Amino acid sequence: MVWVEQPVGVGYTQGVPNITDEVQLGLEFAGFYKQFATTFGLEKKKVYLTGESYGGFYVPYIADAFISQNDDTYFNLAGVAINDPILGDTTLQQEVTVVPYLDYWSNLFALNESFTAAIHERNDFCNYTSYFDTYLTFPPPPGPFPVLPDPFADENYTCDQFDTVYAAALAVNPCFNIYHITDTCPHLFNQLGIVNPGDYEPPGAQVYFNRSDVQKAINAPPTNWMQCTSTNVFGLGSNNTNSSLHDQSLGPAQNGVLQRVIETTNNTIIGVGNLDFLLPPNGTLMALQNVTWNGVQGFQKFPANEFYTPYHPEYNGGALAGAGFLGTWTYERGLTYYQVELAGHELPGYSAGAAYRVVELLLGRIASLGQTGDFTTQTGNFTGTGIIY
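^ thats the sequence. predicted structure below, dont judge the formating
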């Protein structure tokens, strides 16, 4: 298993960013990987690509670059798995879905009746309510779906529902976490550094990957490592905030890139944590309902199969993992979609057992996420009634 920090400009990467879109990013990564495979003798190995969040752009475009090489010696792409991804139109994935998300978790948000009534009225005004009801259906209406106006094009941001709800949530719960909505005060300290506004950093704290002993141990150059870089990785070496120097690519769900990846691998997996406010499950599903792959548009049935995670012994009290039926899933025509009930945006961190099961599916070790029985790397009765082997 190989972890790669990319593109140039993030983490420990060296050099100056020189790209403006995802196609260039994919080709740069393919060039890197060919050299890496040659150096470490990985030719002819099967390659599985995984990612999270903006990896919803990165991973499909990198996979598409691998496919375009038509070279199984270095680019033998066998599968792709992405969790909590941005795949296309942010208006569709965030703005349209935020009020239904608020309704579903209303007891957790605890927002007052007047705000809730006002936000619903605005949802109707922005045509988000009718859009949601029309296009998040199984099977979907024939696409492509109409493109909604960018709420930030209006100088008053009237239809920016996402930030309106976010601000209200912060007023009630100052430690509200868009990545995991059950968090409350106090902020938990993160060894990887601050991400959310208001995150707590104790006096004298040091980001783990900025420690000189850690950098020396992993042969990393002395670097000011940041979990979220301040460098504009699509800015041609500039930190200019001009929109023309940001990622110029459409989402892979909008232009055929994701379709090619699914149809080429027939082993593409996309999942979301149900406690993710930033990119909630319905937004991902709606983006997928607007994609045609292997001759049919979207999923024909709502994802309702039970996602089973095996019971298992725990060896690390600092990273426990749940077991049993932890979510739902579906599979159609080469694409698996799943949701995990108690996971947030960084899904594997919140539900390690479910994430491990997804890796087993990706590698072909199990037939589906509904398969019961042990993890393929462990055998025994781990329910407390038998011997652990």
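Strands lie at 46-52, 76-83, 268-273, 292-293, 296-297, 305-309, 324-332, 335-340.
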